[in-house]
Amino acid sequence: MITKTFTALVAAVLFAASGVNAQTASVIIRASSALDGRGRSVPDAAVVVQGGKIVSVESGRAGAATYDLRGLTLLPGLIDTHVHIDTHFGKDGRATSQGETPQQSMLYSVENAWVTLMAGFTTVQSIGSPSDVDLRAAIARGVVPGPRLLTSIRPVNENTGTPDAIRAFVRKVKADGADLIKLFASKSSREGGAQTMTDEQIQAGCGEAKAVGLRSWVHAHSPSSIRAATLAGCTSVTHGSQATGAELALMQQHGTFFEPNIGLVSQNYLENKPRYLGIGNFNEEGFAFTEKGIPMKREMFTRALTVSGLKLIMGTDAGAGAHGRNAEEIIYRVQVAGQPARDAIVDATSHNAMSLGLAERIGALAPGLDADLIAVDGNPLEDITALRRVVFVMRGGTVYKNIARGR
Ligand SMILES: [Zn+2]
pTM higher than 0.90, yes or no? Predict the structure, then answer.
Protein backbone atom coordinates (compact mmCIF):
# COMPACT_ATOMS: atom_id res chain seq x y z
CA MET A 1 0.00 0.00 0.00
CA ILE A 2 2.80 2.36 1.00
CA THR A 3 4.80 1.42 -2.10
CA LYS A 4 1.83 1.97 -4.34
CA THR A 5 1.16 5.39 -2.84
CA PHE A 6 4.85 6.25 -3.09
CA THR A 7 4.96 5.22 -6.76
CA ALA A 8 1.89 7.28 -7.51
CA LEU A 9 3.44 10.23 -5.72
CA VAL A 10 6.70 9.95 -7.66
CA ALA A 11 4.75 9.72 -10.91
CA ALA A 12 2.73 12.76 -9.95
CA VAL A 13 5.86 14.73 -9.10
CA LEU A 14 7.56 13.70 -12.35
CA PHE A 15 4.45 14.61 -14.34
CA ALA A 16 4.20 17.95 -12.62
CA ALA A 17 7.89 18.59 -13.19
CA SER A 18 7.66 17.88 -16.91
CA GLY A 19 4.58 20.11 -17.13
CA VAL A 20 6.43 22.91 -15.40
CA ASN A 21 9.41 22.45 -17.70
CA ALA A 22 7.24 22.71 -20.80
CA GLN A 23 5.60 25.82 -19.42
CA THR A 24 8.73 27.53 -18.25
CA ALA A 25 11.06 26.86 -21.17
CA SER A 26 12.51 30.22 -22.14
CA VAL A 27 11.53 31.82 -25.40
CA ILE A 28 13.82 34.54 -26.75
CA ILE A 29 12.54 37.11 -29.22
CA ARG A 30 15.15 39.27 -30.90
CA ALA A 31 14.47 42.40 -32.98
CA SER A 32 16.40 45.37 -34.35
CA SER A 33 14.84 47.56 -31.72
CA ALA A 34 12.06 47.60 -29.16
CA LEU A 35 9.84 50.38 -27.88
CA ASP A 36 9.02 49.52 -24.30
CA GLY A 37 5.68 51.37 -24.17
CA ARG A 38 6.93 53.74 -21.47
CA GLY A 39 8.86 55.96 -23.85
CA ARG A 40 12.16 54.10 -23.98
CA SER A 41 13.83 52.61 -27.07
CA VAL A 42 15.96 49.48 -26.77
CA PRO A 43 18.38 48.94 -29.69
CA ASP A 44 19.32 45.37 -30.72
CA ALA A 45 16.65 44.09 -28.37
CA ALA A 46 16.09 40.64 -26.93
CA VAL A 47 12.98 39.87 -24.88
CA VAL A 48 13.06 36.69 -22.79
CA VAL A 49 9.68 35.12 -22.05
CA GLN A 50 8.98 32.32 -19.61
CA GLY A 51 5.66 30.92 -18.40
CA GLY A 52 3.69 33.55 -20.27
CA LYS A 53 5.56 36.42 -18.58
CA ILE A 54 8.37 38.72 -19.65
CA VAL A 55 11.55 37.83 -17.76
CA SER A 56 13.93 40.41 -19.20
CA VAL A 57 14.36 43.03 -21.89
CA GLU A 58 17.98 43.39 -22.93
CA SER A 59 20.12 45.14 -25.50
CA GLY A 60 22.91 43.33 -27.35
CA ARG A 61 22.31 39.89 -25.83
CA ALA A 62 24.52 37.16 -27.29
CA GLY A 63 23.29 33.75 -28.40
CA ALA A 64 20.47 32.27 -30.45
CA ALA A 65 16.89 33.49 -30.50
CA THR A 66 13.71 31.42 -30.67
CA TYR A 67 12.17 34.10 -32.88
CA ASP A 68 14.70 36.10 -34.85
CA LEU A 69 12.87 39.25 -35.88
CA ARG A 70 15.87 41.36 -36.80
CA GLY A 71 14.79 44.12 -39.19
CA LEU A 72 11.55 44.56 -37.27
CA THR A 73 10.47 46.65 -34.27
CA LEU A 74 9.02 45.10 -31.12
CA LEU A 75 6.31 46.82 -29.09
CA PRO A 76 4.02 45.84 -26.25
CA GLY A 77 0.67 44.50 -27.51
CA LEU A 78 -1.50 47.49 -28.37
CA ILE A 79 -4.56 48.35 -26.28
CA ASP A 80 -7.84 49.92 -27.40
CA THR A 81 -9.95 51.25 -24.52
CA HIS A 82 -13.13 51.59 -26.57
CA VAL A 83 -14.51 49.11 -29.09
CA HIS A 84 -17.92 47.63 -29.84
CA ILE A 85 -16.73 44.11 -30.57
CA ASP A 86 -20.20 42.78 -31.49
CA THR A 87 -20.92 45.34 -34.24
CA HIS A 88 -20.71 44.14 -37.83
CA PHE A 89 -22.15 44.35 -41.31
CA GLY A 90 -24.74 41.61 -41.58
CA LYS A 91 -25.94 39.43 -44.43
CA ASP A 92 -27.36 42.33 -46.42
CA GLY A 93 -24.19 44.38 -45.87
CA ARG A 94 -25.98 46.73 -43.45
CA ALA A 95 -24.70 47.73 -40.00
CA THR A 96 -27.40 45.86 -38.13
CA SER A 97 -27.84 42.38 -36.72
CA GLN A 98 -31.58 42.37 -37.44
CA GLY A 99 -32.83 39.03 -38.67
CA GLU A 100 -29.80 37.09 -37.42
CA THR A 101 -29.77 34.14 -35.07
CA PRO A 102 -27.77 34.67 -31.84
CA GLN A 103 -25.27 32.12 -33.18
CA GLN A 104 -24.71 34.13 -36.36
CA SER A 105 -24.24 37.33 -34.34
CA MET A 106 -21.74 35.63 -32.04
CA LEU A 107 -19.70 34.36 -34.99
CA TYR A 108 -19.35 37.94 -36.23
CA SER A 109 -18.07 38.90 -32.76
CA VAL A 110 -15.55 36.05 -32.96
CA GLU A 111 -14.40 37.34 -36.36
CA ASN A 112 -14.00 40.84 -34.92
CA ALA A 113 -11.94 39.47 -32.03
CA TRP A 114 -9.71 37.63 -34.50
CA VAL A 115 -9.04 40.57 -36.84
CA THR A 116 -8.41 42.84 -33.84
CA LEU A 117 -5.80 40.45 -32.42
CA MET A 118 -4.18 40.04 -35.84
CA ALA A 119 -3.91 43.86 -36.02
CA GLY A 120 -1.71 43.78 -32.92
CA PHE A 121 -4.31 44.64 -30.27
CA THR A 122 -3.87 42.19 -27.42
CA THR A 123 -6.32 43.92 -25.04
CA VAL A 124 -9.55 45.74 -25.84
CA GLN A 125 -12.32 47.17 -23.74
CA SER A 126 -15.77 46.63 -25.25
CA ILE A 127 -18.32 49.15 -24.08
CA GLY A 128 -20.32 47.11 -24.37
CA SER A 129 -22.85 44.40 -25.07
CA PRO A 130 -24.34 41.43 -23.13
CA SER A 131 -22.87 39.01 -25.70
CA ASP A 132 -19.36 40.15 -24.69
CA VAL A 133 -19.56 38.01 -21.55
CA ASP A 134 -19.54 34.68 -23.41
CA LEU A 135 -16.93 35.90 -25.89
CA ARG A 136 -14.70 37.07 -23.02
CA ALA A 137 -15.00 33.64 -21.40
CA ALA A 138 -14.19 31.77 -24.63
CA ILE A 139 -11.09 33.91 -25.26
CA ALA A 140 -10.01 33.47 -21.64
CA ARG A 141 -10.33 29.67 -21.98
CA GLY A 142 -7.72 29.92 -24.72
CA VAL A 143 -9.87 28.33 -27.41
CA VAL A 144 -10.99 31.38 -29.35
CA PRO A 145 -8.10 33.59 -30.51
CA GLY A 146 -8.76 37.18 -29.56
CA PRO A 147 -7.56 40.06 -27.45
CA ARG A 148 -8.00 40.02 -23.68
CA LEU A 149 -11.54 41.41 -23.45
CA LEU A 150 -13.05 43.73 -20.85
CA THR A 151 -16.71 44.68 -21.03
CA SER A 152 -19.32 47.01 -19.52
CA ILE A 153 -22.14 44.64 -20.65
CA ARG A 154 -25.00 47.20 -20.41
CA PRO A 155 -24.85 51.01 -20.15
CA VAL A 156 -26.43 53.47 -17.75
CA ASN A 157 -28.36 56.36 -19.34
CA GLU A 158 -30.83 59.06 -18.36
CA ASN A 159 -33.68 56.54 -18.48
CA THR A 160 -32.08 54.10 -16.02
CA GLY A 161 -33.94 56.02 -13.33
CA THR A 162 -33.41 57.85 -10.06
CA PRO A 163 -29.96 57.98 -8.45
CA ASP A 164 -31.04 55.03 -6.26
CA ALA A 165 -32.21 53.06 -9.30
CA ILE A 166 -28.87 53.80 -10.99
CA ARG A 167 -26.92 52.56 -7.95
CA ALA A 168 -28.94 49.31 -7.96
CA PHE A 169 -28.34 48.96 -11.72
CA VAL A 170 -24.59 49.37 -11.23
CA ARG A 171 -24.57 46.63 -8.57
CA LYS A 172 -26.54 44.32 -10.89
CA VAL A 173 -24.16 44.89 -13.83
CA LYS A 174 -21.24 44.23 -11.48
CA ALA A 175 -22.89 40.97 -10.35
CA ASP A 176 -23.34 40.03 -14.01
CA GLY A 177 -19.55 40.28 -14.43
CA ALA A 178 -18.90 43.77 -15.77
CA ASP A 179 -15.31 45.04 -15.74
CA LEU A 180 -16.46 48.67 -15.79
CA ILE A 181 -19.58 50.83 -15.93
CA LYS A 182 -20.45 52.80 -19.07
CA LEU A 183 -22.57 55.93 -18.76
CA PHE A 184 -24.23 57.90 -21.56
CA ALA A 185 -24.16 61.41 -20.11
CA SER A 186 -24.82 63.20 -23.38
CA LYS A 187 -26.61 62.71 -26.68
CA SER A 188 -24.81 61.27 -29.66
CA SER A 189 -22.63 63.65 -31.66
CA ARG A 190 -25.10 63.00 -34.49
CA GLU A 191 -27.76 64.67 -32.33
CA GLY A 192 -25.67 67.60 -31.13
CA GLY A 193 -24.17 65.99 -28.01
CA ALA A 194 -26.10 67.89 -25.29
CA GLN A 195 -26.06 66.59 -21.69
CA THR A 196 -28.78 64.00 -21.03
CA MET A 197 -28.16 62.59 -17.53
CA THR A 198 -28.50 64.99 -14.62
CA ASP A 199 -25.43 65.77 -12.52
CA GLU A 200 -27.01 63.70 -9.69
CA GLN A 201 -27.50 60.70 -11.99
CA ILE A 202 -23.87 60.91 -13.14
CA GLN A 203 -22.66 61.18 -9.52
CA ALA A 204 -24.76 58.13 -8.59
CA GLY A 205 -23.40 56.05 -11.50
CA CYS A 206 -19.71 56.88 -11.06
CA GLY A 207 -19.92 56.95 -7.27
CA GLU A 208 -21.49 53.51 -7.02
CA ALA A 209 -19.07 52.11 -9.59
CA LYS A 210 -16.19 53.29 -7.42
CA ALA A 211 -17.85 51.90 -4.28
CA VAL A 212 -18.07 48.41 -5.82
CA GLY A 213 -14.54 48.57 -7.22
CA LEU A 214 -15.32 49.29 -10.87
CA ARG A 215 -14.09 51.98 -13.20
CA SER A 216 -16.54 54.30 -14.99
CA TRP A 217 -16.39 55.39 -18.63
CA VAL A 218 -18.55 58.34 -19.57
CA HIS A 219 -19.78 59.16 -23.06
CA ALA A 220 -19.81 62.97 -23.05
CA HIS A 221 -19.65 65.43 -25.94
CA SER A 222 -20.90 68.79 -24.60
CA PRO A 223 -18.85 70.91 -22.20
CA SER A 224 -21.44 70.58 -19.41
CA SER A 225 -21.53 66.77 -19.62
CA ILE A 226 -17.72 66.61 -19.57
CA ARG A 227 -17.63 68.88 -16.52
CA ALA A 228 -20.29 66.86 -14.69
CA ALA A 229 -18.43 63.59 -15.30
CA THR A 230 -15.12 65.07 -14.22
CA LEU A 231 -16.50 66.62 -11.03
CA ALA A 232 -18.29 63.34 -10.21
CA GLY A 233 -14.93 61.58 -10.08
CA CYS A 234 -15.62 59.29 -13.06
CA THR A 235 -12.59 57.36 -14.33
CA SER A 236 -12.65 58.47 -17.94
CA VAL A 237 -14.41 60.78 -20.36
CA THR A 238 -14.82 59.33 -23.83
CA HIS A 239 -15.38 61.37 -27.03
CA GLY A 240 -15.23 64.86 -25.45
CA SER A 241 -15.60 66.34 -28.91
CA GLN A 242 -16.77 69.76 -27.69
CA ALA A 243 -14.20 70.09 -24.89
CA THR A 244 -12.79 73.60 -24.62
CA GLY A 245 -9.60 74.59 -22.84
CA ALA A 246 -11.58 74.85 -19.59
CA GLU A 247 -12.81 71.21 -19.67
CA LEU A 248 -9.38 69.94 -20.70
CA ALA A 249 -7.83 71.79 -17.75
CA LEU A 250 -10.53 70.47 -15.40
CA MET A 251 -9.87 66.85 -16.47
CA GLN A 252 -6.15 67.42 -15.92
CA GLN A 253 -6.76 68.80 -12.42
CA HIS A 254 -8.99 65.86 -11.43
CA GLY A 255 -6.79 63.19 -12.98
CA THR A 256 -9.59 62.10 -15.30
CA PHE A 257 -8.46 59.90 -18.17
CA PHE A 258 -9.44 61.48 -21.49
CA GLU A 259 -10.19 59.24 -24.47
CA PRO A 260 -10.85 61.32 -27.59
CA ASN A 261 -11.85 59.44 -30.76
CA ILE A 262 -10.68 61.52 -33.70
CA GLY A 263 -9.21 59.33 -36.41
CA LEU A 264 -11.33 56.28 -37.11
CA VAL A 265 -14.94 56.26 -35.96
CA SER A 266 -16.32 59.23 -37.94
CA GLN A 267 -14.18 58.47 -40.98
CA ASN A 268 -15.46 54.88 -40.92
CA TYR A 269 -19.11 55.99 -40.80
CA LEU A 270 -18.56 58.27 -43.80
CA GLU A 271 -16.67 55.61 -45.76
CA ASN A 272 -19.52 53.17 -45.13
CA LYS A 273 -22.39 55.66 -45.29
CA PRO A 274 -24.74 53.49 -47.41
CA ARG A 275 -24.39 50.65 -44.87
CA TYR A 276 -25.38 52.94 -41.95
CA LEU A 277 -27.84 55.42 -43.52
CA GLY A 278 -31.39 54.93 -42.25
CA ILE A 279 -30.44 53.04 -39.08
CA GLY A 280 -31.36 54.93 -35.86
CA ASN A 281 -29.84 58.41 -35.86
CA PHE A 282 -27.73 57.69 -38.95
CA ASN A 283 -29.75 60.13 -41.08
CA GLU A 284 -28.59 62.93 -43.39
CA GLU A 285 -28.64 65.43 -40.54
CA GLY A 286 -26.55 63.07 -38.38
CA PHE A 287 -24.03 62.55 -41.15
CA ALA A 288 -23.74 66.34 -41.55
CA PHE A 289 -22.80 66.53 -37.83
CA THR A 290 -20.29 63.72 -38.34
CA GLU A 291 -18.62 65.48 -41.26
CA LYS A 292 -18.46 68.82 -39.48
CA GLY A 293 -17.13 67.11 -36.37
CA ILE A 294 -13.93 65.76 -37.93
CA PRO A 295 -11.95 69.05 -38.11
CA MET A 296 -13.54 70.17 -34.83
CA LYS A 297 -12.28 67.05 -33.04
CA ARG A 298 -8.85 67.42 -34.58
CA GLU A 299 -8.59 70.97 -33.25
CA MET A 300 -9.82 69.88 -29.83
CA PHE A 301 -7.18 67.14 -29.77
CA THR A 302 -4.40 69.53 -30.81
CA ARG A 303 -5.46 71.76 -27.91
CA ALA A 304 -5.47 68.74 -25.57
CA LEU A 305 -1.83 68.06 -26.52
CA THR A 306 -0.87 71.43 -25.05
CA VAL A 307 -2.41 70.65 -21.62
CA SER A 308 0.54 69.27 -19.72
CA GLY A 309 -0.33 66.47 -17.30
CA LEU A 310 -3.63 65.63 -19.02
CA LYS A 311 -4.03 61.84 -18.94
CA LEU A 312 -4.59 61.17 -22.65
CA ILE A 313 -5.42 57.60 -23.61
CA MET A 314 -6.16 55.86 -26.91
CA GLY A 315 -9.59 54.44 -27.76
CA THR A 316 -11.20 54.20 -31.19
CA ASP A 317 -14.92 53.59 -30.61
CA ALA A 318 -14.53 50.95 -33.34
CA GLY A 319 -17.81 49.74 -34.79
CA ALA A 320 -18.79 47.77 -37.89
CA GLY A 321 -16.20 48.35 -40.60
CA ALA A 322 -13.49 49.54 -38.20
CA HIS A 323 -12.47 46.31 -36.44
CA GLY A 324 -8.88 45.41 -37.23
CA ARG A 325 -8.18 49.00 -38.28
CA ASN A 326 -7.83 50.25 -34.69
CA ALA A 327 -4.27 51.51 -35.30
CA GLU A 328 -5.66 54.12 -37.71
CA GLU A 329 -6.53 56.21 -34.64
CA ILE A 330 -2.85 56.25 -33.60
CA ILE A 331 -1.70 56.96 -37.15
CA TYR A 332 -4.16 59.87 -37.47
CA ARG A 333 -3.05 61.35 -34.15
CA VAL A 334 0.53 61.44 -35.40
CA GLN A 335 0.15 62.17 -39.12
CA VAL A 336 -2.77 64.60 -39.06
CA ALA A 337 -3.04 65.96 -35.51
CA GLY A 338 0.68 66.30 -34.84
CA GLN A 339 1.19 64.13 -31.75
CA PRO A 340 4.79 62.88 -31.44
CA ALA A 341 4.85 59.18 -32.41
CA ARG A 342 6.55 58.14 -29.19
CA ASP A 343 3.78 59.76 -27.10
CA ALA A 344 1.03 58.24 -29.25
CA ILE A 345 2.52 54.78 -28.70
CA VAL A 346 2.86 55.33 -24.94
CA ASP A 347 -0.82 56.38 -24.84
CA ALA A 348 -1.87 53.19 -26.66
CA THR A 349 0.17 50.95 -24.37
CA SER A 350 1.22 51.91 -20.82
CA HIS A 351 -1.19 54.86 -20.41
CA ASN A 352 -4.07 52.71 -21.61
CA ALA A 353 -3.05 49.94 -19.21
CA MET A 354 -3.14 52.47 -16.36
CA SER A 355 -6.62 53.60 -17.31
CA LEU A 356 -7.79 49.98 -17.22
CA GLY A 357 -6.19 49.42 -13.81
CA LEU A 358 -3.86 46.85 -15.42
CA ALA A 359 -0.52 48.67 -15.35
CA GLU A 360 1.02 45.87 -13.28
CA ARG A 361 0.12 43.27 -15.94
CA ILE A 362 0.17 44.79 -19.42
CA GLY A 363 1.10 47.81 -21.52
CA ALA A 364 4.90 47.63 -21.42
CA LEU A 365 7.87 45.45 -22.24
CA ALA A 366 9.11 45.01 -18.70
CA PRO A 367 10.05 42.10 -16.44
CA GLY A 368 7.08 40.53 -14.66
CA LEU A 369 4.45 41.72 -17.09
CA ASP A 370 2.36 39.42 -19.28
CA ALA A 371 4.15 38.48 -22.49
CA ASP A 372 1.88 40.52 -24.80
CA LEU A 373 4.08 41.77 -27.59
CA ILE A 374 4.00 42.47 -31.28
CA ALA A 375 6.47 43.15 -34.07
CA VAL A 376 5.90 45.60 -36.89
CA ASP A 377 7.66 45.95 -40.23
CA GLY A 378 9.42 49.30 -39.98
CA ASN A 379 10.18 51.82 -37.26
CA PRO A 380 6.97 53.50 -36.06
CA LEU A 381 8.96 56.41 -34.59
CA GLU A 382 10.02 57.33 -38.13
CA ASP A 383 6.96 56.05 -39.99
CA ILE A 384 3.89 55.56 -37.83
CA THR A 385 2.16 53.62 -40.64
CA ALA A 386 4.42 50.70 -39.65
CA LEU A 387 1.58 49.95 -37.19
CA ARG A 388 -0.42 48.77 -40.24
CA ARG A 389 2.21 46.08 -40.81
CA VAL A 390 1.91 43.84 -37.77
CA VAL A 391 3.78 40.63 -38.58
CA PHE A 392 4.10 38.99 -35.17
CA VAL A 393 1.62 38.75 -32.29
CA MET A 394 2.20 37.06 -28.94
CA ARG A 395 -0.36 37.23 -26.15
CA GLY A 396 0.33 35.75 -22.75
CA GLY A 397 3.35 33.92 -24.21
CA THR A 398 1.36 32.25 -27.01
CA VAL A 399 2.25 33.17 -30.59
CA TYR A 400 -0.89 33.87 -32.62
CA LYS A 401 0.76 35.37 -35.68
CA ASN A 402 4.20 35.09 -37.21
CA ILE A 403 4.48 36.15 -40.82
CA ALA A 404 7.85 37.83 -40.48
CA ARG A 405 9.91 37.57 -43.64
CA GLY A 406 12.71 35.00 -43.59
CA ARG A 407 15.97 36.66 -42.60
ZN1 LIG B 1 -18.78 53.77 -28.22
Answer: yes
